[in-house]
Specification:
166 residues
């Protein structure tokens, strides 16, 4: 995404936050907007620790853990951020202009890749629902990545070679 597009997205999510805060008589704090900008400047998934590191190192902005959690919960409620629970790790992702997508998750190393599938998107779109409006989807596909598969095969071959040498 180019810089102009990224700024347009950030402006749009800031307007959503503005409207929510005004309608609910909440304060417009520097922390909320700084965290929002940091999130939308990250490409892909991030942990709370990675977000905090970005705020500290790149933006020279300290925020308490409680403020971070509360702000992320607000963004989850507004659907500006989505939470993923990958194997043993909670990660977040900016989702304002993000189309629905699938995640390939390696059950050995935990590596996550995003994939897009027109067939799955069409299946979800055409899936009948009763009294329910679909906003999007996230699909998790678990398996073994090619790197881990190669390591397993190499280990297996080594064991077989050692047995044959005996």
């Amino acid at each position: 995404m180019d810089i102009a597009s990224k700024e347009n997205v950030i402006s749009a999510v800031e307007r959503i936050l503005d409207n929510y805060l005004e309608m609910n008589n909440h304060r417009k704090t520097l922390e909320r907007y700084t965290i929002l900008r940091a999130i939308y400047s990250i490409n892909g998934h991030f942990t709370l620790e990675e977000l905090n590191a970005k705020l500290l190192k790149e933006m020279n902005f300290h925020v308490s853990r409680a403020t971070m959690y509360n702000t992320l919960n607000l963004f989850l409620e507004l659907r500006l951020v989505v939470r993923h629970r990958f194997q043993g790790a909670t990660k977040y992702e900016a989702c304002y202009d993000n189309t629905s997508h699938c995640h390939q998750i390696c059950t050995i190393c935990g590596k996550v890749n995003e994939i897009r599938s027109q067939e799955i998107s069409e299946a979800v779109e055409n899936m009948p629902t009763r009294r329910f409006r679909k906003d999007g989807y996230t699909l998790y596909v678990y398996g073994v990545c090619s790197t881990c598969q190669a390591k397993i095969t190499k280990r297996k071959n080594r064991k077989e070679n050692n047995k044959n040498k005996r």
